[in-house]
Amino acid sequence: MNRTVTASKPWKQRTSNDYLLVIATSTLPMLVSYVALKSGILSPMLAGLLFIVSQIVAGGVAGLIHRGKRGVGDGILVSLIGFSLATIGIIMGSVLWSVLYKGLEALKFQFLIQNNEYITPTSPLGYGGIGHALLGTIIIVSIATLISLPIGIATAVYITEVRGRSKVIVQSLVQAMSGVPSVVAGLFIYATFIISGVSAYNGFMGALAYSILMLPTVARTAEEVLRLVPDDLRSAALALGASRARVVSMVVLPTAKAGLVTATLLGIARVIGETAPLVFTIFGSARTNLNPFSDGMAALPLYIFNGVRQPFAPEQARAYSAALVLLILVLIVFSLARFLTSDRKRK
Amino acid sequence: MTLQIPKPKTISRNAQLTKADRRFARVMTAAAFFSLVVLSLIAIFLVYQAVPAIRDQGLIQFLTDARWDSGSIGERDSDFVEPIFGIAAMLWGTILIGIIAIILALPISLGLATFIVFIASEKIAGVARAIVDFLAAIPSIVYALWAISALTLKGREWGEWLTTNLGFIPIFKNDIGIWVGTPLIAGIVLAAMITPIITSVTREVLSRTPAELVSASLALGGTLWPTLKYVAFPFAKSGIVAATMLGLGRALGETVAVFYVLNLTYGTINWVGIVSPQGGSIASLIVAKFSEAGALEISALLGGGMVLFVITLIVNAIATAISRLAITDK
Amino acid sequence: MTINSTESSVFQVPKTKGTGSITTDAVMESVGMYVWFGPRLVLADVNLKFPANSVTALIGPSGCGKSTFIRTLNRMHELIPSAALAGQVLFEGNDIYGPTVNPVDVRLRIGMVFQKPNPFPAMTIEENVLSGLRLAKIKNEKPAELVEKSLTQAGLWNEVKDRLGNTAGSLSGGQQQRLCIARSLAVNPNVLLMDEPCSALDPGSTLRVEETIRELSEFMTVVIVTHNMQQAQRVAQFTAFFLSEDNNPGYVVEHGPTVDVFANPIDTRTSDYVNGRFG
Questions:
Q1: Which domain holds residue B146?
Q2: How far is the alpha carbon of B327 from chain A, nearest alpha carbon, in Å?
């Protein structure tokens, strides 16, 4: 006897009544509120309130119809979760839209390469750009990376490889440091170096402030990454007579290479848009300055921060364009980090 | 015959380490304690630089006075105004917008985390996680622009509506007639910024709910809501509190996003009027006053920074302690 | 019979031997049950009857699909995202996978005890017993009586009656497992499914749980997955032997009264397995 048996998922089968219920639940409250709004019965705020309340009630009723009294809680829960999703969606859409909408106007090729030297807030959009600020951001972030990467990795090595007695203390300290507000990091550099006359405002000061914020991110991510290195590798190398230092430098760190790059990228993503630390440290500049140790330097976040305060349309447009560029930079760094992580997991 | 029981030999932790190994361990230890050095230096230098202002004003006055006035020197003696620096209004304002942010962000974060862990399919959960992580990576200056260009308009409408319709409740009172620059708007921006942070930590703890407990609940006839209420949330409770504290710490220290959308008012403390354009924020105060401040005012601003540092340190320490306790419990 | 699974691999399912001897009316019955995880067919053509107020043991080597099968009996199987199935589970004559059936109702009538004791750690002993009522929103007028009755049925009452307010974590592993049994009994199911309930317990606790199972079978139907041949003989009136060979899907080789399966197995593989020659 030959027979064909097909796999099915009876628990996923929906009757037409189920579909009707879902459609009714998800559209009726909106429809009713919309009609109430358009017919002028309710003000926009009240119509919004009506929508929220009626959607919650509709969720409960749908649950009741579908699963009896036990379904009420689930129905309401689904409505509330729907609100969370909608809220975060609206926030993201609105954030991206407001930067795109106002930022595309000034975004031309010249905007990316020119500096602001002869530009006033009222100069037309065809002139000037953020080339100097882009370079400044790259220089400042690079120096911050050079400072925080070795210390961050060494901290992670201490926690996972040396396994010193104070492991928990160090972890707590790193945690505490990650909570330092960015404005405090900037103030600290200002109070320590600039107010006391050790240094003038310059790019390096900004990099120091950035590295305070970057260090905990690098250290924590690196710690997680080093934990993923299998213990067998360490034991094997130790059994071959290698010293601890060599095990770390020849076995552990190379194995975790991709992860350490991710840690660096996450650290960069953490600081690249930070504005507050720069307000007290780099002074800003309209011209291109490639020397981090003398004179003020421009950076993207500070450029945006100062630009948007100007009451002139062209300068505002430039600020929004700079924000768009910054957002794209963050997106690139962030996607790279994610790509590397997913790549590592696949292996 | 007596039996000799050999004493167990204790191997010293460092006995098997070579010289090079010990040097290596020392270098790593030194680097690891770099964060302690930085934290201490922050405290030391901020305190050191704040001393002149605090000595001039007195610590109690500095913390409890709501006035912030750089003083003035007029042509006549009678025009001379003594500078007064008190951060009480800014301190309370910082806490107020932090509270608003938490109240708004927590339910949304719980909803999102629940969706990702318990409802969404693997694929959709992955997308949702990526979006949440991306939102967390958006720089605060971008949120600031969003707040200026989009949120303020809506926030003004909502504020005005609240005052007109619910103005009899003290928190919605507004005697000034302007609804821009209110703590509510600042709180909403902060909520948008900390929602991703709270969500990702909450998601992490919720996903650690033991599968066998969820199975037990479902096998006993529990549906989604009872399972969350009686099994998952009690399990994740301390983790969620820690996540909230983490978000609060971030909200208290946020600067630029608040700077543009909050009107700072000195002299009186606005205790509860969240739709009144009278706010406070230590971080914004520092940025606002920094560029035109004299030596004494700079010192006072650094004192404000010190207070902010201490508060965020405490909030984060509580978060760390709670999450550590939660880990050792289970 | 030759079947084509969705993977289109043709696979011969041998006919289950020995089923003829079960003639009693069944309270629950699986009819032509096939189970998939993703594209992989893991169980083929399981036809088993579970007579009322009896204990049926499901035995077989690891990976033969017994635990998967038992989870299809109260719709816990569907909680795994890649799960799929074909066939029916008839409970009191109705298919529990029918389009209008609420899985919650099924799980309330057909309870389950898991391999690892899993009491809710944040609840007290008493709250654990009553947790099913809370979770399923069932009202009960006399909770104290229900707690005593359920704990007595699970053979735990005397040990815990003085400390009902303690958390479940204060109990030993065996006590925790009996607490889980009491928790399942509190919602008054007709059938109790037990997935290797003693595999995480010491011998003493195991005997105690077996005693409980024998007592339960006086008024309810029990299906128990076990690796322990002696246990099957001690507690079960009926036994089904599952086997999966050469990466083929698992199926029931032999099913019948426990005495027959152990003493006079029809299939040589059954006899090899129950005599410890493999598995």
A1: 94-281+318-329
A2: 13
- Cross-chain Cβ contact A67/C84 below 8 Å: no
Q: How far is C112 from chain A (nearest CA, A)?
A: 19
A216, A244, A270 member nearest B24 (Cβ): A244
Between the alpha carbon of residue A327 and those of residues A96, A103, A175, A297, A323, the distances in Å are 9, 11, 27, 21, 6
Residues of chain A positioned with their CB less than 8 A from the CB of C34:
5, 7
For C8-55, the pLDDT digits (tens) are: 345 677 788 876 556 667 899 999 999 999 999 999 999 999 999 999
Report, at the CATH architecture level, how domain C2-120+191-274 is classified.
3-Layer(aba) Sandwich (3.40)
Q: Chain B: nearest CA to A94, how far in angstroms?
A: 7
Mutation choice for B interface testing from C135, C177, C180 by most B CBs within 10 A: C135
Q: What is the largest CA-CA distance in chain A?
A: 95
Contact criterion met (CB below 8 Å) for C251 and C3: no
- The H-assigned helical ranges of C7-65 are none
| CATH no. of A131-346 | 1.10.3720.10
pLDDT band at C2 (very low <50, low <70, confident <90, very high): very low
pLDDT digits (tens, 9 = 90+) for C172-227: 999 999 999 999 999 999 999 999 999 988 998 899 999 999 999 999 999 999 99
Residue C111, H or E segment:
strand C110-113
Region A56-66: what's the mean pLDDT?
A: 95
* CB pairs < 8 Å spanning B and C: 70
Give the model confidence (pLDDT) of B82-128 as tens digits. 889 999 999 999 999 999 999 999 999 999 999 999 999 999 999 99
Could you tell me if A325 lies within 8 Å of chain B, comparing CB atoms?
Answer: no
Mutation site, C15, C137, C139, C187, interface A, largest A CB count within 10 A:
C137
Write the ipTM: 0.94
Under a CB-based contact definition with an 8 Å cutoff, are residues A244 and A161 in contact?
Answer: yes
Burial class (CB in 10 A: 0-12, 13-18, 19+), A290: exposed
pTM of the model: 0.92
Interatomic CA distance for residues B99 and B94, integer angstroms = 9
Q: How many domains does chain B have?
A: 1
Sorted by where each begins, the domain ranges of chain A are 13-103, 131-346
Q: What is the pLDDT of residue B186?
A: 98
Against chain A, the chains showing at least 3 CB pairs within 8 Å are B, C
Which residues of chain B are within 8 Å of residue A155 when distances are taken between CB atoms?
31-32, 34-35
* Residue B295 maps to a domain: no
Distance from CA of A261 to the nearest CA of C (A): 34
Q: Looking at the domain assignment, is residue B192 inside a domain? A: yes
* Phi, psi (degrees; rounded to nearest 5) at C238: -125, 150
Q: What is the mean pLDDT of residues B42-60?
A: 93
Q: Which residues of C touch B236 (CB under 8 A)?
A: none
